[in-house]
Amino acid sequence: MGDDGREDPVTRGAAPRRTAPILKALALSLAAVVLLGGCGSAATKAGPGADASGGVAATGAATKAPSAARTPKMPRPTPAATTTGSTASGGAGKGAASATTVVFVDVGQGDATVIKSGSWTGLIDGGPPGSEPAIEAALAKLGVRRLSAVVVSHMHTDHTGGLPHIVSEWRPRTAYAAGTPTSALAGALRGAGATVVQVRRGAGLRFGAARAEVLSPAGLSGDANGDSVVLRLEAGGKSFLFTGDCTGPNEAAVGRLCARGPPIDVLKVAHHGSRYSTTSAFLAETRPSVAVICVGPNSYGHPTPATVGRLLAAGSRVHTTWKNGSITFKVSATGAMSVSFGRSSQPVKKATAAGGGGGGGASSGAAAGAASSRASGDTIVYITWTGECYHVDGCRYLSSSRIPIALKDARGKYRPCSVCDPPR
Question: Are residues 228 and 323 in the same domain?
């Protein structure tokens, strides 16, 4: 202040000179924001003079930004190392859940197939009595701790003999069937707390990452073989057809259903290669690339030369558990499929009499089948004192009594045995 009490002109003028650089810097900063950004809240608040397109773009970017937090929900690539493995808790990672393994277990003259898809594991049939060690070894090799489900194609002992023990030890949660379980199997299922589900044609089942459709039976006819549960399994774009011992009208119906879709990649041949299943018409409709015959040393002549010949004529690559041992197919999420064998990897190349295509000699069952074609009609079959069926020589049901009878006399009085499959 001056002596007269007024402001000193020099002092009043000095303040604006000190603040000018600051104001200039602020103006330059605002200009830089507008020129460089054109985005974010600064651009949005710029007022009527702001670029409208820049404002819209800024708003869109701000809305999409949180998407980074949702990234873990997106599908991840399948790690190769977890294709068939399981975690320590018995579950599986997302990569493993997309892969499927199918093992046709070598149980001799019978059927047993393990399916593993991620942490889900199922068993189709349990082979004849004595199959338990082979089935348990296959489960252990896959790291399985408990079965999710069992499928019982039908109640003949070459498909159910090992099931009571397996069910008791591996405690499946669900059992799928198309008929009443045997007393031994029913007791094991109750003990395991399994739910028994009766399935019919058209039912859809989820097997881990794989899907299965029941193609047969539509109803029960009383013929155990014909009423077998038939499943078409789809995994990674590959198809497997499990036929049990299906034959006759139901096999024909399955063929018609399959004819509407793409060819079958892997066919489990019905009834161990019996001549009464796997007709030429059925093969023309299913068009299987690979055929697996579950068979072992037997007195029935399985697989018959006629059936093997039809498979080869249809262009199928034929393998048998008798010759090749357990056969394992692995299907990745992308549909890549590989196969490995417990023994030889060589396919069946000739329609041999027996031995699963592996060089075995003709059995008595095959001889009986050949004899049935003779015009003289003097083919000999066998009955028991108390049974209602006739059999070929060597059938296990002849262990207590074995009475020869001409086939022409047996027809009409006795039913053909569904296990040994005698001439009709």
Answer: yes
Q: What are phi and psi of 122, to 5 degrees?
A: -130, 160
| 203 and 307 share one domain | yes
Number of domains in the chain: 3
Angle made by CA atoms 178, 217, 293, in degrees to the nearest 5: 90
Check if the beta carbon of residue 392 is closer than 8 Å to that of residue 365.
yes
Sign of CA dihedral 2, 6, 9, 15: positive
Q: What is the CATH number of the domain that holds 140?
A: 3.60.15.10
* pTM of the model as a whole: 0.66
User: Is residue 4 included in any domain, yes or no?
Assistant: no
Whole-number Å distance between alpha carbons of 319 and 376: 36
Same domain assignment for residues 248 and 99: yes
Domain that holds residue 391: 364-416
The tens-digit pLDDT sequence of the chain (424 residues) is 444 444 444 334 444 444 444 444 444 444 443 333 443 333 333 333 333 333 333 333 333 333 333 333 333 333 333 233 332 223 334 444 579 999 999 999 999 999 999 999 999 999 999 999 999 999 999 999 999 999 999 999 999 999 999 999 999 999 999 999 999 999 999 999 999 999 999 999 999 999 999 999 999 999 999 999 999 999 999 999 999 999 999 999 999 999 999 999 999 999 999 998 999 999 999 999 999 999 999 888 999 999 999 999 999 999 999 999 999 999 999 999 999 999 999 999 988 765 555 443 333 333 333 333 333 346 888 888 778 888 887 787 877 777 888 888 888 788 888 878 888 8
